[in-house]
Every structure is written in C-alpha cells, then in structure tokens.
Amino acid sequence: MIRDMVFLKLWGLVNERSMIVESLHDLGVLHLQDEPGEALSPESAGELKILRGKALGLLEALGWDEWNTIPKKNLEEKRAILSEPDETIIEGIRESLDAFSMRLTEQVALKSELEGRISSVRSALRTLYHFQNFITENSTKGMDVTLWWVQRVSVPDLVSRIQKQISEKDPLGGDSKTPYHSSVSPGGETIVAIAAHPDHVRIVMEIMSASDCLPWLLPGEYEGVPYRQGIPLMEQAVGDFPRRIGEIDATLKRTKLEWGPKIGALFVLLDEKVEEILVETASETRGEIFRLEGWVPLDEKERVTDFIKSRFGDRVLVKWRDPSPEEWANVPTSLKNPPYFRPFELFLKLMPVLGYKGLDPTILIGIFFPFFGGCMIGDIGYGIIIALLGSWLKKMKHRPLVSDIGSILLFVAAWSIFWGAAYGEVFGDIGHRLLHLEPLWLERSQVVIPVMIFTVSLGFAHVLLGYLMGFVQGIRAKHRHLWLERLGNIFVLGALLSAMILVKGWLPGKFFSIAVSFLILGLALLLAGGGMGGLVEAFGSVGNILSYVRIAAIGLSSAILAMVANSFVDSMGVTFIGIFMALTIHLLNFVLAVAGSSLHSARLQYVEFLGKFHSGGGTQYKPFSRRKPELWKKR
Amino acid sequence: MFLKDSTGFPENYGYLNARLRAHFSDFLGREDYRRIASRSLEGIELFLLETRYGKSFRKSLVEQPLSTHRRIEMALSDTASDSLNHARQMAMGEPEDLMRVLLARADLHNGRLLLRYFFTGAVYEGNPVWHGYGSLPVPFFRQLWKSHSLSHAIDKCLSSEHPLSSALAAGCSHLRKGSTLPASERVFLSEVLSSLEEILNRHRNKNGNLVRELLGRSIDIWNMNIWSRVAADTIDREKAFGLFIEGGFSLPLERLRGSNNVSQLLGATVWESLIPKDSGSPLVMMPGKAGRLFWLWQISQRRKDPLGIEVSIAFIAHQLVEWQNLNALVVGVDMGLEVGSIMGKMVLPG
Amino acid sequence: MEKALIALAAALAVGIPAIATAYAQARIGSVGAGTIAEKPETGGIIIILEAIPETMVILGFVVAVMLILQFA
User: Is A386 left (phi over 0), alpha (psi -120 to 50) or beta?
Assistant: First the structure.
C-alpha cells in the first residue's frame, strides 16, 4: 500500500536553526520539499566539503571499505564534538589529515618506484644473461665488451669497418678477428655486443656513434657499472626489492586496519554536518524566523508533533495539510505493506517509482508470483529443498536483499509443495514408486492438455485483473484515454470468453448476440481510448494470455527431466554411477526449475500484469536522516 | 551476422554502446559550463567534488600539496583517462581493436610532447599532464621524461616491446640526427599510422572504414597545418612538401602541392565550410577551426548507428572535448576572464 | 513414415521459433545487460523487452502440442 502523506510547514527561530535541523536529522522522517543541491551549496560549507573529500580520498587510497566496523559509541561521542565545529576544530582536522596523507603518499610513491625499477632491472638482466658467456669469455682475455643498439642488416658491415680500423692502427696485433655477438630484443630491435682490446675501444665507439648507433645502457643507478659487476648487483636488487615492497604492503595494511575506522567515522560525521548545513541554507529566512517544508507519512505525524513539542515547546510552530490533487505528481511515494508481503516490494525496485496515486501491486505480486512459480516446479521434494534454502537465506538479516529473497523462496516452496501434491510428484516419480503417492489432480507428464487449459485460464484471469486495475488507475488519475482503452480490452476479453462458452455449447445460441455486443462495445472503446494502437493492444492481450502456457511447458519439461534422472537408477541399477547420475540430473533440474520458474513467473508479472496499469512518474520518499554505516558503501 | 555471432568472432557493440550511451547524459551542457564559469576557482573545485570528477579530485586532494589549479587539472585528466580506459575495457573483439586505434591519439599527444621537450632542451622539474588512455602506459612516458638525454630516451623506447614505442624511438632518432621538430614529428606520426593501419586491415568493413576516415581527417588537419605555414611564408615551400603525410581523407597530396589559396585547397571537400567569407581571415587560424570542426563531426556520429563504432567515436570525442573545455574554463577563471570570453574558447556541441 | 513427418513438423514448429527467439534475445540481452549495468532501475523494462520475442516460441510450443495430439 502507498502511505498517505501530509505536508509539513515548520517555523522556528534562526538562532535555534542548527539545533532544529539536527533534531529533524535524528528524527529521520521529513522528505524535504526542495532537496538542497550539493553542487550549488554555499561557500560556507566549502571548507567542510573539502575535508570530507580528503577523508574519503584517504579511505579510497587505503582501500578501506569496512563501514560496519565503525564503533557506534565512538561515532556518538565524536558527533557531539563536531556538533558546532569552529575554526580551531576544522584547522586541527585539516592538519592531521594533511600529515597523514603526506605519510601515506610517501609510502605509495616508494612502492610504485620500486615496482618500476624491478621491471627495468629484470629486463636488463634478461639481456645480460644472453651475453653473459660472451662477456665472461672475452673479459678473461683482457678485452672490453660494449653493447649497442643497431639495425640487424648493418651488423656485418659495422664489424668489418671496426676490424679494418683496428688493423690499420695496430698492424701487428690486428690479425685476430673482432669478436661480436648479437641478440634480438623483445621489441624486435637488435643488440650487438662487441669485444675489443682496451686500446681499441675508442675505435669501436667512434664508428658506432658515427653510424648513429646508440649504446645499450644499464638501468638507472647501474649505468656506468661494468657489465660483469652489474649482474650480481642487479640480481641482489631483484631479490631485495620484493622484500621492501612486502614491508611497505605490511605497513599499509597495518595503517588501514588502525586508521580506517577512525577516518571512516570522521567522514560520516563531516558528511552529516555538510548535509545539515545544506538544509539550513535551503530554508527560507525572514528576519529572525526561518521556514522548512516537506512531506511526512501520515502515520508519523503524531510522532513528529510530539518530538518537536518535547524538544522546543512553543518556540517552533508546525502546520500540517493534505496534498491537493495538483500536488500529487510531486508527493513522494513510500510503500508500507504487511510484513509477509514486504519482500515482494523488491519487484517494484526494478521499475520506475510508482506515482503517489498509483496502485501498489505488491500484495498481488506476492500472491501470483509464488503461485505461478510453484505451479511450474510442482514437486514436493524440490519444494522442501527450496524451503530449506529459503529459511537459510532469510536468516541473513544483515543483508536485507538476501533475506528478502529467502522469504520469497519460502512462498514459492509452499506453492511447490501444494502443486507437487496436486501432480503427485516427489523428485519426479519417486513418490509414486516408493510411497505409492497418487496425484490429487492429474499427472502432468501424461495429461498435457488440461494443464495447458488451466494455465491459459489462469492467464485470462490474471490479464483481466491487470486491465481492471488499469481501468481503476485511469479513473483515479482522471486519465480518460487509459480507462477507455482498458475498459475496451475488458469487453473484448469478455466477448472472447462468451464466444468460447458458446462454441463449447455451454450456453444456448441466443446468447451469441451478447458476445457480439461485447465485441462491438469493446472495439469502440478501444478506438476511442487508443485509436488504432488500441486495436493492436487487443491482439496483444490475446498473445499475453497464451503466454501463460509457459507455466505448463516449463512444468512439463521439469517433470520429464526428473523422471529421466530416476530412469538412470532403472537402467544402471542401484550402483554408485546410477545414483550419481540421477543426483546430478536432479541437481541440474532443480537449478533449472528454480531459475526458470522465477524468471518466467517474474516475466508474467512484469509484462503481462504490471504492463496493464503500472506507470511510473513518482518521486521516491527520501527522508532527511542519518544513514546507517553499512549504507556508506553505496557512495 | 548470425553466423558471425556463432563462429567465434566476438563483438559486443550492443553491450558496449548501451553502456556508453548511458553516460552521454553525464556530460556537461552549455548551461552547466556557463554556471561554472561564473564561479571562483574554489567554487569550481567544490562543484567538481560533487560530480563524476569527485573520485579523481579526492585522489589529487590526498596525493600531494598542489595548487588549486593544478589539483583541478590533475582531476580532469585522471577522470577523462579513467573514463576512456573503462570504455576500452568494456569492448571486445572488433570494437576493442578499433578503440585501440581511436585512443592512440593519447600516445600521439604524449609522444609529441616528449619530442618538443627534447627539441627545446628545456629543463622542467615537474611532470606534464599526460594523456593516460593510450596503449603505452603513463609511467613509461614519465620515465622517458626523466631521461638525461635523447640517447637514454631512445634506449628506453627500444627496450620496450610495444610497436608504438619503436615509433617514438624513430622520431627521437631523427631529432638526435639533427632533424627539425616537424620532420621528427612527421616520422613519429607516420610510424604510428602504419602501425594502426595494421590493426585496421583486420577490419575491412563499415566500422573499420569509418575509423580509417577518422584517421584520414586527422592527417588532413596535419597537412592543412603545414600548408597554411607555406601559404603564410613561415616555412620553405620545398621543405614543407616533404612534411605532408600521405593518406588524408579529402585532401590528396597533389591538391596540397598545387593549391595556391584556401578556396582551391578546400573547395568541394569536407572542409569546405572553413573557406573564409572575407579574405582578411588569418591563415594560422585555419587548423584551429579545422580541429573544432573535426570534434563536432566526431560528436555528431552518436546517433548514426546504435550498433556500430559511431557511438564509441562520439563518446571519446565528447569526453575529450569536455576535458578541453573544462581546462579552458579553469584557465579563463584563473585569469579573470569574462564568462562570454571563456565560453568563446570552448567547443560546444549541439 | 507419417508419424515421423508429424514429429518433424512438431519439432520444426518449436525449433525454428526457438532459434529466432534465441537470436533476438541474444541481441536484446547484450544491450539490456549494458543498460542495466549503468542504470539498474531500468531492470524491469529490460526484462519486458527481453521477454517480448519469447512469445514466438511459446506459440510454437502450442502448435507443436496441437500437431501431435491431433495427428499422431
């Protein structure tokens, strides 16, 4: 049901404004008429907003997200301190946050630098390992080795030019060939190592530089270190860096555990304060008096009045009034359904918000969704397992969504057991084989047509109910086209029903004129309400009704698959493989049954039922309240 | 299409475009810009803190003590890069390849920044604002920026396995051999383009052709830039002809070499609207105007095909234009310019 | 032989719409998944859009059952 709302106007003294706003924040029921825009906030809140941003930025940098671990007592104590934040408090907070962020940034920067260095050192080592034998061999002969970036095709030419120059300079010792060794780098470039006598290294460098070849360099601080000495130094670094990174990680983890909840609490309080300042500035002020306006659920009216009276006595004036029809479009929508049906409000969260004067279908979904789902599953054994699963999920109160799904599953389980008894199924035909269970209605795997007729009739009733609700919705919202079209559809469906009864011969032929008049009236209303589109909608409604055959189709496949599972024990005997195969197929069938029935039943609600009357356009009721810590996760 | 879907050519234009289209409403509009332009720098900071720039802004609040201007600059850059990287991560198969080509403009920007840095030989202690949505990672450019010399930078480029780093190495090598900056940039651009062409050759269809057209239009702008310098006599004619890049979309090399005035060059091409009504319009303004026209063309692709690469092209352009606009806005506010004057410097679609 | 043809007709009555539905749902599904990822509140509408092509296969099923019951 949609809660009735009343409009609250509150006048108070400007010097008590922050106290009054804080009290309303505690009360947490007022939906403000004009939501204060954060982006257009006054500059006065700027300082606190920057601090709030800094606190959240630190939490994000720490990777902290354990909002549930903030001690509530701690939060209350600090809330009192921050109630009236002055310059000194704000300055103190800023200084400590800055000091903390400085330390954190240093650690993170050091870690990222080490990670960068480790990758370049590893890459250099890979190249050096390739040349290690060449370097060692030639160094022991007293030669100097240099490494160069060159184009592969020019390697032989360069080496012969070096050889020629050395021979010219030193005709006696220059007979021996200039040793070189090349390798292709991961990027596809060629690196060549050239060994030369220390006296001839200059020649190598001159020729290579003149040919625009670049020396291959060791990374960072190792540049200039001889290659042979560089290898052990870099190997040591490769071993040492991960240890240092590990130490930084451990420090960051400790910091996160120690400081996360503290900064988290600070953030929550700063956010609350910013919100209060925004509400204060959004209030209209005239002289010494300010005014706040908003919507409150009617069932909370008395509590709000008592609360304000007890805290501020006659210093605050409160006036209430009901919303006028012109305001309906702006009144926030809040749902309140009986506890058993509340979990089904979940279905409406996936739809645009209901208008204030819309029809809340939660209870009807609560009746039809599990009914259709249970009809598809239709097995006592599966029903019991779903019930167990549902009660386990329902216990997870700290995760409301999961708990709601658990409750919905319990409803589905009850109907599955009911329909299981009707079809005489316990894990397929096991009930019949072992317990001689007979169906109370019929065996759906054998008799298909009656189940199909039943499901289509069910569809007829469900779609008709949807049109009836659409008709009521049209009248309530004074939407002429809507109610005319829905009424037209009701008549067309009535004509269809009458025609089928006549064909069956359950009514005398003279009633034929009634069916025809229903049809003519229906078509006229459809044309008046929706024009040609309305006529197309009438055809669509027939498709909608036929769509309920899926209940029979999915149920049939589920029943047959369960029997197939059991037949493994027949063909393989009571052996390990036979039982294993049977259980596996049952598991598959169970998953398909639960997932398929939920999806298809949901589809029938969304497409065939809600589509006939649900229209959004509402505003979600968002009271000005303190958020529970776990909800901060959604930021 | 059905066979293609079921034979192992994954492409997710439907999914990707649905996600990207959902973000178009997040981009700032003309009125938003006008409202922000009337604020102080601190006011802009508070505004950004509450928008999708908030997360990056919080990061820059924490990282180091920066000036308000620099903090905003970093937050804008981070958000734009995150948003574009996120878009690329969502793409699969063909759109992923094409996104890689479209986002290579970050590597081009960063590479040209480095070439200019090494060309001027200036010593700049801080880091520039890198475009962090390309194929080469930002730490790689940071490392190059810290290099002691061009040789060190080339060594680092050659050590990397990425083809675009080899392209940068080629550009740097030319600079090292004494080439001019435009000539080195040309080498770098040509190498990058040929590497991108390899990717595009795998997608010879409507989407691949559109991306090819986009690259062609970028080449047109480069060539127009060179041509306008020749026409303004700020560069030697013969040398300039060597700087043109082949493969433009609507300005072939013969036309560039043979045109003596703007009408001759741009008449009956996609750039025709750039022909000035009066002869007094300075030629140096032409590439800037062409750039603006190019952005608007990219953004206009948004509704052309909901299941094609057009949505990605428009998304990337919109994101980059917003970044550019906000930067212009921050600089304008910092300099105390009038709202109208700041708005005149922006690219405003629609 | 006649029975085999009836069985084939029934299989085609379900099979062809099933392939068509699968193709349509795959296309709508990928777009829908993208939309829901960004705007979860559109979930209900996406389910509706995703469900529309299903009618084909349901009608195919009805035709198949009719074929078998009438002729087999």
Answer: alpha
